[in-house]
C-alpha cells in the first residue's frame, strides 16, 4: 500500500511555500485521490480530458483541476465548465477554441504556454519566438475569456542532471523575456516545470509549480 498522506507531507516539507504542488493523478482511482484530498491536497493534474471529467463529477467541488496533457481542440468543450488551468497550450488555434468554450460558461480560463525545451522530438511545445509572437499578437487581445498566466516545459528524459538543469534554466530565461509583454489577458507569473524525478532541480532553476505523480501515488497503472 502506498502511504499517500506520508508521501504528500514529505514532498510539501521539502519544497518552498511559493511552489504549487500539482498531484498528478492520471490512471489513479478516485479513492486514492480522496486520500490525497483528505491530507489537504486540492490541486490535481490529469492528462486525459475524459478521465478528468469523470473524476470531477465524483470529487468535492473545491478541487482545482489542471489539464497537463496534450489537448485536442475538439475535446476542450468537455472541461471548459470547470478546469482551473490548462498547461499545454502550444498554438493560437487551441487558445481560440478554449476562449470560445470558456465564453459559453462565462468564465476566463487560465492557460500556460507549453515551450519546447527538451531535445527529444516527442515533446510538444512552441519555440520562444512563437510564444512571443502569440502574446504580442492582436489576435490574443481579442480573446476575452482566456488569460495566459505562465509557461510550462518538460525536460529531456535523461539521467544527465546537467542537461536537465540547462533546459530548465532555458525555460526560466524564456519566461523572463516574455514577462515584459503584459496585457489584460497575459499576466505571466507561473513557471510549471519539474516532475517526480527532477522537481528539486526545477525549483532551484526557478519553478513555481511542480507536477508530481509517482512520488505521491506510487507507480503508474497502465492497464
Explain this structure to me?
Helices cover 39% and strands 19% of the residues. By secondary structure, it is of the alpha/beta class. The chain has a single domain (4-217), classed as Alanine racemase (TIM Barrel). The longest helix is centred in the C-terminal third of the chain and has 18 residues, at 161-178. It is globular. The two termini are 18 Å apart. The mean pLDDT is 95.
Query: What general outline do the C-alpha atoms trace?
Result: globular
H-E order: HEHEHEHEHEHHEHEHEH
Gyration radius (Cα, Å) is 17 Å
CATH topology: TIM Barrel
- The figure for the number of domains is 1
The strand count comes to 8
- How many H/I helical runs? 10
Q: What is the distance, rounded to the nearest whole angstrom, between the alpha carbons of the first and last residues?
A: 18 Å
CATH top-level class: Alpha Beta
User: Any idea what the CATH architecture is?
Assistant: Alpha-Beta Barrel
CATH level-4 homologous superfamily:
Alanine racemase
**Biggest sheet: strands, sense, closure?**
8 strands, parallel
